[in-house]
Design a protein that fits this description.
Blueprint lengths: L1 H15 L9 E3 L9 E3 L1 H4 L9 H9 L2 H13 L7 E8 L2 E9 L4 E10 L4 E6 L4 E4 H9 L1
Antiparallel strand pairs: 1-2, 3-4, 4-5, 5-6, 6-7
Length: about 150
């Protein structure tokens, strides 16, 4: 129960203090399998947070992607600068964290993106509902351009 309250508090604080970052994570392969593409930013990884599994670390990383920033600006404009993008964190399995990003309205939460993060490898995937697949950020961006 304390974790749920803490996670909700973190989401509220993060959504109220959403900042526009000037750099988007660069493409870097971090895992042994060369087919896996992991997106990290060296500036973010330089001990910004002592604990890599920290929820704030991952929300900051996810919010720095261009398509998330664009959605944040859209939601901010749509709500007359009252709300930006919000994150819900779920960690039923410690080897994979799930973050849902979207609009947190008074009546409902509208999901825009669902991210799957593997903290040990720093691998980030995005769920695409149309293809029903988890895609790398690079694959998801290519899909958005089509």
């Amino acid at each position: 129960m304390k974790f749920i309250i803490g996670a909700l508090f973190a989401i509220v604080i993060f959504s109220c203090t959403s900042q526009d970052k000037s750099t988007e994570p660069s493409d870097t392969t971090m895992s042994a399998d060369s087919t896996d593409i992991v997106f990290t930013d060296n500036k973010i990884l330089e001990n910004v947070y002592e604990n890599v599994d920290n929820t704030h670390y991952w929300m900051d990383t996810l919010s720095s992607f261009s398509f998330v920033k664009e959605t944040d600006r859209y939601l901010d404009s749509l709500t007359n600068h009252k709300h930006g993008i919000a994150f819900l964190a779920d960690s039923t399995d410690p080897s994979e964290l799930i973050f849902t990003a979207g609009y947190n309205g008074q009546e409902r939460f509208e999901t825009y993106y669902q991210f799957y993060v593997e903290p040990s490898t720093k691998k980030i995937l995005v769920y695409d509902a149309v293809s029903d697949k988890k895609l790398t950020i690079k694959q998801y961006k290519a899909l958005l351009k089509k």
